[in-house]
Design goal:
The chain is an alpha+beta fold. The chain has seven helices and three strands; from the N terminus they run βαββαααααα. It has helices at residues 15-28, 56-62, 79-99, 103-106, 109-117, 123-126, 134-157, and strands at residues 2-9, 29-41, 44-55. A hairpin with a 2-residue loop joins β2 (29-41) and β3 (44-55). α3 crosses α7 (134-157).
């Protein structure tokens, strides 16, 4: 188990760059525990995050590769996929606010993109997303599947001629 601390000043031009580095770190590691706090420093407020993690080398030495699915991030999302990811991100923001945790603790952007690219339509599909983890599937999976299925059924139920309906 390794440890890494990130400090992100909230009122600084460097905040965006430090947040990008934090996101890169999250994408390259298997985070086991997170401790976060806000601190008032003479330079201004600071967000400090401590991660306990296993890096990729440790993960591959300890266990066989997970059966997770990672989709090609270079392929642009379709219109339906964009609608699904927007709905998932809205739900994630509401869920994170309700729990009082950062967004990435509910679901990382990469996982949401993989979910809509698959497309995931069941809890079993969600278990195939690399990094999502069994406990997140148990905790959030039913709601994610509900959102994905309602987004796809809304598209199918929209009448094809609705734009011209009622026009003379």
């Amino acid at each position: 188990m390794r440890c890494k601390i990130f400090s992100v000043p909230l009122e600084s031009e460097k905040a965006f760059e430090k947040e990008r580095k934090l996101n890169d770190f999250l994408g390259a590691t298997n985070v086991k525990r997170v401790f976060a706090s806000l601190a008032n420093q003479p330079e201004g407020p600071l967000w400090s995050v401590l991660f306990l993690y296993e890096d990729e080398a440790q993960v591959t030495q300890k266990a066989p590769a997970s059966p997770g699915v990672t989709m090609d991030p270079g392929t642009p999302l379709t219109g339906e996929q964009v609608k699904s990811i927007v709905a998932l991100k809205k739900w994630r923001a509401d869920q994170a606010a309700q729990e009082g945790v950062p967004l990435y603790m509910v679901a990382q952007n990469r996982w949401l993109e993989d979910i809509v690219r698959m497309p995931a339509r069941s809890l079993d599909d969600l278990t195939k997303v690399k990094g999502l983890g069994e406990w997140r599937v148990q905790k959030y999976g039913a709601k994610m599947v509900e959102i994905l299925n309602s987004a796809s059924s809304a598209k199918r139920s929209w009448p094809a001629s609705s734009y011209s309906a009622g026009r003379a």
